[in-house]
Write a structure and sequence with these properties.
By secondary structure, the chain is of the alpha+beta class. Helices cover about 25% and strands about 25% of the residues. The strands form 6 sheets. The protein has a 5-stranded antiparallel beta sheet. A hairpin with a 2-residue loop joins β8 and β9. α2 packs antiparallel against α5. The longest helix has 19 residues. The radius of gyration is 22 Å and the shape is globular. The two termini are about 25 Å apart. The site of uridine-diphosphate-2(N-acetylglucosaminyl) butyric acid has 19 residues, from β13 and α7.
């Protein structure tokens, strides 16, 4: 366990903002987390607390982070940042709480992954084992625990699609509990860990149900075409490793590498709007264009339409828009970047406001940030 006062968080937020926290605590096991909780019974993890416990005061508020890949620190954090360094990848059903008769057959493998494992390390491991599941989510920055909180998604797959169980430390009872995906209230980049149960549970590990039989998900955008091309070019067969390689090259062509240009991936969610709002967007888009101007969209059924925020932002002429050290990424306008590495939180917030206000004034749609503001 490590406890550091006045820690620089530049390496702990993928925006690369130069912010700090009053205290940083890293634990390596559930037992250490329990120990921390006992020292701090007033409610470790509950955002409004952070009591002195046995005299080792953890300044409040308390914030659990993964790799800070979906966070925007709007200023220095006055409280304590907790980070899980629980790292293991373990294949085998028993630890995932599977009982006889519940397994999905011999072509599935259950794998338990510690919350502190880098998400992409898990994706690489799965591909190397020839197991299908997370390959479309390759290259997403962040850690496994946060992936289960955020229900990360890309290229037609969401983490919830192959999560079997989320194991958590309950900061109220001090006990370890396990939730099935149906109990986690998963939605588009949503879960109870971000909403109704925010601050109560700390994810300690996640159990995934992976498939050893072929199970490619290639329907999103140009993924199938890119996979077909890779099959032809390499002469290899269709494996999770091949799909992973294709996904990584698609991502690299569109998204900034956080090791080079700071960002938090998509800054906004894609808005899901009633059909009437979509019709309004379509009629505004037609102004000055031909009648067959198409608004890209995805019909969710149930009367709601998802419109790509990237398209709305591009229509406002903001692709590549720059204000000081912060900018709208030129290749994917859903991403706000720390262009020079010197951006302040205020500069990122100013670009956020510019994008949000521009889309609202042109289309009447208020974009919701995906990135959590701290
Ligand atoms: N588009 C434009 N202009 C652009 C880029 C995209 O108009 O410059 C439009 C196109 O119509 C395109 C559509 O936006 O077809 C969708 O673009 P893309 O496939 O790049 O996906 P996205 O909806 O912008 C989402 C996720 C990404 C994920 C990709 C791929 C959200 C908020 N973002 O972006 O996730 O990688 O799909 O599946 O849902 C993240 O969450 O940090 C993230 C990067």
């Amino acid at each position: 366990m490590t406890i550091v006062r006045n820690k620089d968080l530049t390496a702990w937020n993928t925006f690369g903002l130069k912010v700090s926290c009053a205290c940083f605590v890293e634990y390596g096991s559930v037992a250490e987390l329990e120990e921390l909780w006992k020292r701090n019974r007033d409610g470790l993890g509950l955002p409004e607390t952070g009591g002195a416990g046995d005299g080792t005061a953890f300044p409040s508020p308390i914030l659990h982070i993964g790799r800070g890949s979906n966070l925007l620190f709007t200023k220095d954090f006055p409280g304590t940042v907790f980070h899980s360094d629980i790292k293991f990848i373990e294949a085998g059903g028993e630890s995932c709480g599977i009982t006889a008769g519940e397994t999905a057959g011999d072509r599935r493998t259950d794998v338990e992954v510690g919350a502190g494992v880098l998400w992409d390390d898990f994706c690489r491991w799965s591909a190397e084992q020839g197991l299908w599941g997370p390959e479309n989510l390759s290259g997403i920055p962040g850690e496994t625990g946060a992936a289960a909180v955020q229900n990360i998604g890309a290229y037609g797959v969401e983490a919830k699609d192959f999560i079997r169980m989320v194991k958590c430390f309950d900061c109220i009872t001090g006990k370890v509990v396990a939730f099935r995906p149906s109990e986690c209230r998963y939605g588009y980049r949503e879960s109870m860990f971000k909403t109704s149960a925010k601050g109560r549970y700390v994810v300690t590990s996640v159990c995934f149900s992976l498939s050893s039989g072929p199970n490619p998900k290639l329907e999103y955008g140009n993924v199938r075409a890119a996979v077909d091309k890779a099959l032809e070019d390499t002469g290899k067969s269709l494996t999770p490793a091949l799909v992973r390689d294709v996904i990584l090259s698609v991502r690299n062509s569109k998204l900034p590498d956080p090791a080079v240009i700071g960002s938090a991936g998509s800054f906004f969610k894609n808005p899901v709007v009633p059909r009437s709002d979509y019709e309004r967007v379509a009629s505004i888009a037609r102004i000055g264009h031909s009648d067959d101007c198409q608004v890209p969209h995805f019909d969710t059924g149930s009367g709601f339409i998802k419109i790509p925020a990237a398209w709305l932002i591009e229509q406002c002429g903001l692709k590549g828009y720059r204000d000081g050290n912060a900018a709208v990424y030129e290749r994917q306008p859903l991403v706000i970047v720390n262009l020079t590495g010197e951006a302040s939180p205020e500069e990122i917030l100013a670009v956020e406001k510019k994008v949000s206000d521009s889309v609202y004034s042109k289309f009447g749609i208020r974009l919701q940030p995906e990135v959590e503001h701290i």
